[in-house]
Amino acid sequence: AQRVTQPEKLLSVFKGAPVELKCNYSYSGSPELFWYVQYSRQRLQLLLRHISRESIKGFTADLNKGETSFHLKKPFAQEEDSAMYYCALYGGATNKLIFGTGTLLAVQP
Amino acid sequence: EAGVVQSPRYKIIEKKQPVAFWCNPISGHNTLYWYLQNLGQGPELLIRYENEEAVDDSQLPKDRFSAERLKGVDSTLKIQPAELGDSAVYLCASSLDPGQTQYFGPGTRLLVL
Q1: What is the pLDDT of residues B73-104, one digit of tens each?
Q2: Yes or no, beta carbons of A86 and B42 under 8 Å apart
Q3: What distance lies between CA A27 and its chain's CA centroid?
C-alpha cells in the first residue's frame, strides 16, 4: 500500500538555523516524490519533485530508496519559509498522489 | 493566468441541506481532481477526471456525493444531504495529464452546522 509519513506536526527553528523536514514513504514500486508547500492564506503549490533534482528557494530533497525517505532540507532558515509543508508520493500503478499529514514549519526571528 | 478557480470560497450550511462546489481548471489541462482535506490532514483524493470521464472515483462516498465534468472543462462536486462530518476543505486541482504536476485551487471551506 502507498503511504507517506511525516512524523512531526510542528517544527520550530530560529532564523539562520538548518531545517530538516522528515518524510518516509511506503511503496512497492519506483515512486515519484514531491514536496508541496502552503503559505498562510495561499493555495497549495509544488515546491520541488525528486526527478528534477533542483533546489527551490534554497530547499533540497534527496530520495533515499534504502531508507525510503525524502527529507526536505535547507541550510539556513528564513522567516518567509514559515508554512505548512506536505510530502507526497505519486504511484504510477494507481495514478494517485498520496499526501502526508503535513509539518508546520515556524521560523522564529 | 488565473490558475485553478474555485467557488464559493466559504460555505456554511445546516446538516441535511445540499451543497455544490464549482471548479474551473487551468486552460488545456485534461485531468481534474477533487480532494478532501480534513483538519490536520493532507489532501485525500475523492475523484479524478480525464477529460469528461471519471476514471477514479473509488474514494467518493457515492451515497451522498456526486460529481460531474461536462464538456471536459468545469466541474461541480455536490453533497446531498450534508452531514456534520463533511465539514472540511474541498480542493480542486488540475494537470496536463496524469502524473504531471498538479496545480491546486484555493479550496472551498465547508462548515456544516
Answers
A1: 999 999 999 999 999 999 999 999 888 889 99
A2: yes
A3: 17
